[in-house]
Amino acid sequence: MSPEESIPGARGCAVLPVRSGDAALLRSLRSTVGEGVVHSVFSRVVNLLTPQDRLIALAVRGAGHAPRTLTADVTDWTGYGIEAGRRVRFARGSLTLELPHKRLRLTLDGARLWCPDTPSLAHLAPAELAAAAAHLDRLNRAHGALGGMLGATPGAGPMEAAVATALAKGRTGFTAAVPTGDPARIRTAVLSLLGLGPGLTPAGDDFLTGAALVAALPGSALAAFVPVLKDVLDAHPGRTTDLSLATLREAADGRARAELLDLLRLLAERAAPRQLDVPVRKVLAAGHTSGSDTLSGLTAGLHLEEELRGSL
Amino acid sequence: MSTTAVVRKNTYFDSVSLMSVSTKANGLDGVEQAFTAMGTEMNKGVLGNLGLLTDELRAAGSGDLMIVLVAEDRADTEALLAEVEDLLHRKAPASAEAGAVTYRTIAGAAEGIAGANLAVIAVNGAYAAREARKALENGLHVMLFSDNVSVEDEVALKELAHDKGLFMMGPDCGTAIINNVALCFGNKVRPGSVGIVAASGTGSQEVSVRVHALGGGISQLIGTGGRDLSEEVGGIMMTDGIRALAADPATEVIVLVSKPPAASVEKKVLAEVAAAGKPVVVYFIGGSEEAVTAAGGHFASGSLDAARQAVALAGVETAGTEEFDAAQAAADVVTRLAEGQRYVRGLFCGGTLCDETMYAVKDAGLDVWSNIQKDPAFRLTAAAGSKGHTFLDFGDDDFTNGRPHPMIDPTPRLERLVAEARDPEVAAVVMDFVLGFGSHEDPVGTTLPAIEEAQRIAREAGRHLEIVAYVLGTDLDTPSVAAQTAALEAAGVTVTRSSTETGRFAREIARKAQQA
Predict the structure, then answer these.
(1) What is the pLDDT of residue A196?
(2) Residues of B numbered 114-143 whose beta carbons fall under 8 angstroms of chain A's beta carbons: which are they?
(3) Are B208 and B250 in contact (CB under 8 A)?
(4) Domain holding B496: CATH number?
(5) What does the domain layout of chain A look like in residue ranges?
(6) For chain B, which has fewer Cβ within 10 Å, the N-terminal or C-terminal residue?
(7) Does residue B511 belong to any structural domain of this protein?
(8) SS3 B206
(9) Phi, psi for B141 (deg, rounded to 5)
(10) What one-character-per-residue DSSP string does B328-375 give?
(11) Is B330 in the same domain as B401?
């Protein structure tokens, strides 16, 4: 354990203050009591399951704000000895992780609150939406990673190529289904993408996350998509990974990583195209293809908004 | 061919680690294809469509990691499984090696390391300019490996560096040798009196290894980033680099390496050449002699010529080397070709190596298609098939999007090599292998199975396929040039001794094969 990052507390227990976190999560943790478990451990994030089996994340400093995420003043979780499957005790105002030889208590008092601010694009004209979508698409194709929604990498093997083909087919089906407003067609389209792709958040899910975020914004014309997505997630939680399921559920409520919301806010403020370059690159920096796949979904959502508003 | 699967219950890898396991599994001897994915229904559906779904995979859940190996018939699947398990068990390295100190900010590192004066920055392009600015503001020279930095940011950073008397090498700068330490991609070369300023990574590597091979040595190799000599950037770093080497007592001769600069920038650079007070050899790939000579510079027609002139001007005595008779060697190759074999295909890791060979073939008046061709009429995309004489730079963005550079992971061009062997019009395939710091530990060894496969395909079709290879490196590199060359020659590959020689040989084969 990194001694400068933890404050010695009771014998065999180190104390680490949580610096900031999702306001809604902090509110709910203040009344959560019981036993949870460490779900998965990465260098920059530790995922926990709460006593209610809800997935939450402990992120390192600088990882950026996100729904269901707390940020602690550490740079890397690797040296802490945290292992998947270990018990986590939730008490009012703290959560304590059982480590091999000691405990690590994270205290919530004094944590700064992050309240995701969901903008609205309802005031934008169809032509403005189309221009924004085209610009984002250009940036994505210029700087995004291949291997997901942007297509297979050159020289890809048959498996990656088959996933890329299925993703392209899924996108086509999705963009055709949503404008119809037909729940059955939308449901089929969602199921054709859900869980598709090799990563921890499969590319098909990331695409749906981007589209769901647009659909969940106040005044969106894609309103029919969100309830269908929520129904599918409730009916088929095992069709994708826990992490992806949590991300999709949040997106369906208009909640997403700060970088995505910042980008949408700039669109709402009619920012000049050049002002979008840096925020887009921040979005693209997520995961291997996750950022690019989410941006593909967001772009598809904007195109659908334009199409549906134009048809009003 | 058989399918072998490993399912790891409730195992989560971040996407970068997942890609790394997949890449390593694909590189195992006996593996035709490897694929890693979470066990979701849709992923299992894809495997089912490909006929690869085993009972074990069918039972995987969405929280389970699936690793699917399609192995060659001869492969020992038990051993492969053990190797894959080993890959999975290897813990990701901690953030710092034992005993090393990790600094959280550039300012912290600048304060904490007494005498530190250079920062090497390799972060996502979105953050690169900000980190470079911080380094400059903390009094550090910068080597910026990252690309995807806007030209406006590049100009601002270079102007800031210039005002502070610091180097701003990059963005997109992959090669430098500073005070005998190679940074990022570089070769182990003898210290000496030849200083290089280069806007081209592999071009500067090639000149440095040729200087070394001729008995000379390198004082400094300063990278500028590929865009430095554009109209927008105006050659700020190249100018500062020339001035620094002009003032450096250890440097007796300066060599400039770049693609031809913008006209206004060429004037500025040649003015610096005239004022340098030392001999300056100018190798502007495909550039013209007149302006360089008028400025008092020494014009070099190729990388080998640049190295030879530099070494001679530095007063280093070189043992005479036997000239390679490219015309005769090509004539010998052509006698072995079948009817219809008339084209040369180049598959390169190094952009400048590709450029030099491509220009050599173009100089013979032949049409050449490439992904780095300036003329849009002859430009190919990564996805396009080859056409006529084709020269591909696999290190170009078009090929590296989402993949490591081919100098780190040479596998992407292996499939292309095999594909070229199937084309009855192909007379020769030309390849480069780049050794040194930062490069793959055994690029030749990784490529040999594909070379053998290509030769087998041609042989069974009644054709001779000439495979020509150039190994860029020195006797001091690990592995050495000699060891990699020996492995290629044992496989029946013709190995050239320099990039320039590679270009000449390719040109002669292209010319003679097309005439035949």
Answers:
(1) 95
(2) 124-127
(3) no
(4) 3.40.50.261
(5) 3-114, 126-310
(6) N
(7) yes
(8) helix
(9) -65, 155
(10) HHHHHHHHTPPTT--EEEEEES-HHHHHHHHHHHHHTT--EEETT-SS
(11) yes
Q: Does B20 touch chain A (CB under 8 A)?
A: no
Is residue B281 within 8 Å of residue B253, measured between CB atoms?
yes
Task: Report which of A114, A95, A112, A108 is spatially closest to residue A17, judged by C-alpha positions.
Answer: A108
Cβ partners under 8 Å of residue B134, min gap 6: B105, B106, B107
* Residues B399 and B492 placed together within one structural domain of the fold: yes
The whole-angstrom distance between B443's CA and the closest CA on chain A is: 18
Tens of pLDDT, residue by residue over B81-132, are 888 777 776 644 333 333 446 677 787 777 767 678 899 998 887 888 999 9
Query: How near does any CA of chain B get to the CA of A53, in Å?
Result: 15
Alpha carbon separation from B270 to B184, B197, B229 (Å, rounded): 29, 13, 12
Q: Does position A4 have pLDDT exceeding 50, yes or no?
A: no
* B interface test, pick of A200, A207, A276, A284 with most B CB neighbours within 10 Å: A200
Q: Which residues lie below 8 Å from residue B485, measured CB to CB, with a gap of 6+?
A: B471, B495
Question: Do B284 and B354 have their domain in common?
Answer: no
Q: Which residue of A has its CA nearest to B33?
A: A157
Sheet holding B343-348, edge to edge: B368-370, B389-393, B343-348, B426-434, B466-472, B494-496
Joined together, the tokens standing for residue B493 give 């590959």
8 A C-beta contact, residue B270 and residue B238: no
Model pLDDT, residue A216: 96
- Indicate if B303 and B331 belong to the same structural domain: no
Which of A79, A166, A289 is the closest to B402 by Cβ? A289
Tell me the average pLDDT of chain B.
89
Verify whether the Cβ–Cβ distance B126 to A278 is below 8 Å. yes
Q: Check CB contact under 8 Å for B126 and A75.
A: no
Q: Which residues contact B420 (CB under 8 A, 6 or more apart)?
A: B345, B347, B386, B426, B429, B454
- Is B19 touching A (CB cutoff 8 A)? yes
**Inter-residue contact B405 to B398 (CB < 8 Å):** no
To the nearest whole angstrom, how far is the Cα of A153 from the nearest Cα of chain B?
7
Across the interface, whether the CB atoms of A282 and B38 are under 8 A apart is answered no
- Does a structural domain hold residue B163? no
Contact A200 B12 (CB under 8 A): yes
The 10s digit of each residue's pLDDT in B212-253 is 999 999 999 999 999 999 999 999 999 999 999 999 999 999
Give whole-number Cα distances, B157 to A153, A246, A279, B231, B235, in Å.
Answer: 33, 41, 20, 16, 13
Residues B28 and B64 reside in one and the same domain: yes
B300 lies in the same domain as B334: no
Between chain A and chain B, the number of residue pairs with CB atoms below 8 A apart is: 142
Same domain, B207 and B303: yes
Based on the number of CB atoms within 10 Å of its own CB, is B77 exposed (0-12), middle (13-18) or buried (19 or more)?
middle
Nearest CA in chain B to A145: B402
Residue B258 lies in a domain: yes
Cβ atoms within 10 Å of B438's Cβ, excluding its own? 17
Q: Which of B8, B28, B31, B42 to mutate to test the interface with A (most CBs of A within 10 A)?
A: B42
Last residue of a domain, one of B265, B292, B321: B321
Judge if B504 and B363 occupy the same domain. yes
The pair of structure tokens assigned to A105 is 């208590």
* Selection from A182, A169, A209, A170 nearest residue A289 by Cα: A209
Measured in angstroms, the CA of B269 and the nearest CA of chain A are apart by: 31
* Residue in this structure with the two tokens 């990194």, named with its chain if needed: A2
- Which chain B residue is nearest to residue A160, measuring alpha carbons? B35
- Domain count along chain B: 3
Domain that holds residue B209: 189-321
Among chain B residues, CA nearest to A164 = B46
> What is the value of ipTM here, to two decimals?
0.88
Residue B52 lies in a domain: yes
Residues of A with CB below 8 A from B126's CB?
A: 278, 281-282, 284-285
CATH of the domain at B64: 3.30.70.60
Query: Of B321, B344, B370, at which residue does a domain stop?
Result: B321
